[in-house]
Amino acid sequence: MPGPGQDPFDIAWRVMTEPVFKGLIWGSLTEQYRPARSNDMDDESVGSFLARRMMNEAPGNNIVSAVLHGIYAGDINQLSIKSLMPMLWHYEAWKGSIMKATYTRMAEKLDIVSKRDMDLKLEVLPKIKADLSDALKYASVYSFKEGIGALSGALEKALRENPNVDFKKETGVTAVEYDGESDSVKVMWLTDSGVFHTDLNERSRQQVTLQPNTPKLSPRSPAVSSRPSPQTPSQLLLKLTPWQ
């Protein structure tokens, strides 16, 4: 396999001869001559897209599959090309070919971004100081001065200041359910004192004490219900409403 510090000719020879790169060079060179997809095609899998554009399943199965499986733990024949690689999908729609679109972009020095990224950029950039904005142009990795923990710390602080949020530490969650009628989320977890129900719309709380000697939940126990009984473990039911 090619690696850092190797001779360029040695790398080229390995790419041309090693089985893992089968079909990669020829498929890349001839991709621009393949017909573009039909206009009525809304999406397709990563595997199907690569096989269609390169007329060979080997590059997708040997290289791309390994990369995406490591990142998403998914099958390239099930993962969406439009979701995971939107730039390649839109390249074909733009120029009918990935290689043609790449040549055009390089020749005309185009900076192509998605509408979502552009909207985010227009929203965030005015909030960033000029000196920091200039420094970010040449940076490829971003972090916080206090480390990545600053992000979770700020999130926790914001949640604690919100009256709709209660923190329950060292508590195992047994179920998370969405209630479409009330547009809320119910979170259930185990407790030894009874079943609590919190309605954050009315800010009311009630407790139902269970009978003593309630059995503990075993790994093979069936899913618990929100109605207590001597055969079910005690639970805590929390109802969260969307933030205003």
Write up what this structure looks like.
With 244 residues, the chain is α+β, with helices and mostly antiparallel strands. Among the domains are: 8-108, protoporphyrinogen ix oxidase, domain 3 (Orthogonal Bundle), CATH 1.10.3110; 173-240, no CATH class. The chain is built from ten helices and five strands. It has helices spanning 8-17, 24-30, 46-54, 58-72, 81-84, 86-95, 98-108, 115-124, 130-136, 149-160, and strands at 173-179, 184-190, 195-199, 204-208, 235-240. The chain has a five-stranded mixed β-sheet with strand order 1-2-5-3-4, with no helix packed on it. The chain is extended, with a radius of gyration of 27 Å.
How are the SSEs ordered, and which strands pair?
Blueprint: H1 8-17, H2 24-30, H3 46-54, H4 58-72, H5 81-84, H6 86-95, H7 98-108, H8 115-124, H9 130-136, H10 149-160, E1 173-179, E2 184-190, E3 195-199, E4 204-208, E5 235-240
Parallel strand pairs: 3-5
Antiparallel strand pairs: 1-2, 2-5, 3-4
Helix pairs in contact: 3-4, 6-7
